[in-house]
Amino acid sequence: xxxxxxxxxxxxxxxxxxxxxxxxxxxxxxxxxxxxxxxxxxxxxxxxxxxxxxxxxxxxxxxxxxxxxxxxxxxxxxxxxxxxxxxxxxxxxxxxxxxxxxxxxxxxxxxxxxxxxxxxxxxxxxxxxxxxxxxxxxxxxxxxxxxxxxxxxxxxxxxxxxxxxxxxxxxxxxxxxxxxxxxxxxxxx
Length: 189
Description:
Blueprint: H1 6-13, H2 18-33, E1 40-43, H3 49-53, E2 57-61, H4 64-72, E3 77-79, E4 92-98, H5 108-117, E5 118-129, H6 131-135, H7 146-154, E6 159-166, H8 171-174, E7 181-187
């Protein structure tokens, strides 16, 4: 992973628009939450919006500025070392990793940790940016097409439950809208 200046990234997350906030709260998160059960882990929660939105969700982040800010807001966000999830084996029913995977040059260690903390038959929800979104950020390391996203998790033994694009499924948006993302829902086992 490229060197990240944590406080600059935290400040960037704080500047999201009202439209972005409304989109997450009323469009994206309600759709994602349909796939979650029980206790969930949000890896890379940023400023904690998803943790705030969905009860029974804990977040972990490598950015101490994000963690400190989220904790000051009363959210259960914990600091993690890179590639080490501070939880017991099979502790979570669901895991959310939204727009994080593309930042990781070698994802194998964190994916193994996710396998470890996810219960058998648990659900993973993985979101990655489309083509324009990937190209728009200098700290993006690995591009995942819809097909590569599926292959990554099927090769790990997961079953595909659903794959969709947000805000709507329309290939034309992939190279024209930075916020266009693919989401894969995978079941362990």
